[in-house]
Automatic annotation (TrEMBL), chain A:
<comment type="similarity">
    <text>Belongs to the mitochondrion-specific ribosomal protein mL45 family.</text>
</comment>
<dbReference type="InterPro" id="IPR007379">
    <property type="entry name" value="Tim44-like_dom"/>
</dbReference>
<dbReference type="Pfam" id="PF04280">
    <property type="entry name" value="Tim44"/>
</dbReference>
<keyword id="KW-0689">Ribosomal protein</keyword>
<dbReference type="GO" id="GO:0005840">
    <property type="term" value="C:ribosome"/>
</dbReference>
<protein>
    <recommendedName>
        <fullName>Large ribosomal subunit protein mL45</fullName>
    </recommendedName>
</protein>
<keyword id="KW-0687">Ribonucleoprotein</keyword>
<dbReference type="GO" id="GO:1990904">
    <property type="term" value="C:ribonucleoprotein complex"/>
</dbReference>
<feature type="domain" description="Tim44-like">
    <location>
        <begin position="136"/>
        <end position="284"/>
    </location>
</feature>
Automatic annotation (TrEMBL), chain B:
<dbReference type="InterPro" id="IPR036394">
    <property type="entry name" value="Ribosomal_uL22_sf"/>
</dbReference>
<keyword id="KW-0687">Ribonucleoprotein</keyword>
<dbReference type="GO" id="GO:1990904">
    <property type="term" value="C:ribonucleoprotein complex"/>
</dbReference>
<keyword id="KW-0689">Ribosomal protein</keyword>
<comment type="similarity">
    <text>Belongs to the universal ribosomal protein uL22 family.</text>
</comment>
<dbReference type="InterPro" id="IPR001063">
    <property type="entry name" value="Ribosomal_uL22"/>
</dbReference>
<dbReference type="GO" id="GO:0005840">
    <property type="term" value="C:ribosome"/>
</dbReference>
<dbReference type="InterPro" id="IPR047867">
    <property type="entry name" value="Ribosomal_uL22_bac/org-type"/>
</dbReference>
<dbReference type="Pfam" id="PF00237">
    <property type="entry name" value="Ribosomal_L22"/>
</dbReference>
């Protein structure tokens, strides 16, 4: 070929790589220069067969939780292992020591119910108060049928204690003791986002004495299984400072106190001999402006 | 927060590196410098040699997050892609869960490799002999910290004009001239 019609040149370079310059197609195959590759491709397959194939564990698959898998995936996995499908559970767990909601919630009147009774709006408000009051009195009678010496005035002292103790337990992040002062329904709402924060809270003083504004009773499942709910109005001076995981102030202040008006719902399983009054929820009226929260620059990371 | 008794214990054990994310620091007084936020993350059981991963882990150490991602996207190695994904994941977690405001205001404070499980295989040799093949895995650990990266993370000598002159002068003055006063 070297003396053929077409001039062909061979250049031997240091690596076993050849630069071939043809007459028509000129190409430099320099990328083929790799060490560690056998020069003879003839027995490549046989050399490969020397390795006994091992099934490597697929960790991304092993660490996958059942929630991430699709229905077909679970089926094929169970088939591989020869497992029978689990019987579908028709039952669903329910908690029966507290109700799941605030029933007939108290609607705090706008302007704290101080509209003039002469105006049309004020007259309507007063009428509504009266209607609700009669219902509350009936509920009070019901509570007294279980607790003979129930007195709202004495209850208010207890309610205030529960309110303060519950807050102290939130500060301590003591879930075991917290459940003595709040119901299971309120628990997730209260402890949400608390775990990695440091909360400093102080009950400074009572501005107005606490007031029972609303009483309701309801039966659940059977007629004699009765729950009682009491809404209490707290008007107090409080201090709140929330620190993030690194101890940096996120919300509130240690030195500034604020007036807080809250409507707290307390619940008790009246039919239960050992039932106690616990915080069940908080009433936030629709007309109330949204509370302040720490503002962060919004950046879409995804 | 401690789970309730009825909730039961966690089934899978957490890696110790990730428990640093649960540390809660005491509140700071108003005058103090804000403590920089940080986040630890680990990518476990990567099918890649820890020896090869080491070079990539060293490359990004002490860089800002944006710079680290930019540099890694120009490294055509399998480990670079994995490291890049891990850093990006840590960055988004920092914003979601750890009260970091700006995603670019982070730097790679720690980046290292751990040895993972090794699966042993067999290779045939001549004359009925065998050779051991090791299929290595590794873990990639990363910690991002809030703030700007340090100017000289590795404490390398600087080569600007003034410092080179200073070094030269120091060397000259410190020399010992033999048989002199």
């Amino acid at each position: 070929m070297l003396f053929g019609i077409e001039p062909i040149f061979y250049f031997q370079v240091r690596n076993p790589c050849t630069i071939y310059l043809g007459a028509e197609n000129v190409y430099f195959n320099q990328t083929r220069c790799r060490t560690g590759k056998h020069w003879e491709p003839k027995f490549k397959k046989l050399r490969g067969l020397k390795f006994i194939t091992v099934k490597l564990p697929d960790y991304s698959e092993l660490e996958k939780s059942v929630d991430e898998m699709s229905k077909d995936e679970i089926r094929t996995k169970m088939k591989e292992k020869g497992l029978l499908p689990e019987q579908p559970w028709m039952e669903s767990p329910i908690y029966i020591s507290c109700t799941g909601d605030v029933f007939e919630p108290y609607i705090p009147p706008e302007g704290d119910g101080k509209l003039s009774p002469i105006s049309a709006k004020g007259a309507k408000q007063k009428l509504e108060f009266l209607e609700k009051k009669s219902k509350s009195l009936m509920a009070l009678r019901k509570i007294r049928s279980f607790e003979e010496d129930f007195e709202p005035r004495i209850f208010l002292k207890l309610a205030e204690d529960i309110y303060i103790l519950a807050h102290n337990e939130i500060m301590k992040k003591n879930n075991k003791d917290l459940i003595r002062y709040i119901t299971e329904r309120a628990n997730p709402e209260i402890i949400h986002n608390v775990a990695d924060k440091t909360i400093h809270w102080k009950y400074l003083e009572t501005i107005e004495p606490a007031k029972v504004v609303h009483l309701r009773c309801t039966d659940v499942i059977s007629r004699d299984n009765i729950f009682g709910q009491i809404t209490v109005r707290f008007h107090s001076k409080q201090m709140l400072a929330v620190y993030d995981r690194f101890g940096r102030l996120m919300h509130g202040s240690e030195s500034i106190s604020k007036d807080v008006l809250e409507y707290i719902v307390f619940e008790k399983h009246l039919s239960n001999q050992y039932g106690v009054w616990r915080i069940h929820g908080k009433i936030i009226p629709d007309w109330m402006p949204p509370s302040e929260y720490p503002l962060n620059t919004f950046i879409d990371v995804t | 927060m401690e789970p309730l008794e009825e909730e039961g214990k966690e089934l899978t054990k957490k890696m110790r590196w990730l428990t640093y994310n649960d540390l809660i620091f005491p509140p700071q007084v108003p005058g103090e410098n804000p403590r920089p936020a940080y986040i630890c993350l680990v990518k476990e059981n990567i099918k890649y040699s820890p020896k090869k991963m080491w070079y990539i882990a060293c490359l990004v150490r002490g860089m800002s997050v944006d710079e680290a991602i930019r540099q890694l996207s120009f490294v055509s190695r399998k480990g670079a892609e994995i490291a890049k994904e891990t850093i990006k994941e840590a960055q988004s977690l920092a914003i979601q869960d750890h009260n970091v405001e700006y995603k670019s205001n982070l730097w790679v404070a720690e980046s290292f490799v751990g040895k993972g499980p090794v699966v042993h295989g067999i290779r045939r040799h001549a004359r009925m002999r065998i050779g051991k093949v090791e299929y290595k895995h590794c873990h990639y650990f990363v910690r991002l910290e809030e703030g700007k990266p340090p100017d000289n993370y590795y404490n390398r000598p600087s080569f600007d004009k003034q410092s080179m002159v200073d070094r030269w002068m120091k060397m000259i003055r410190n020399r010992k001239i033999s048989s002199s006063l």
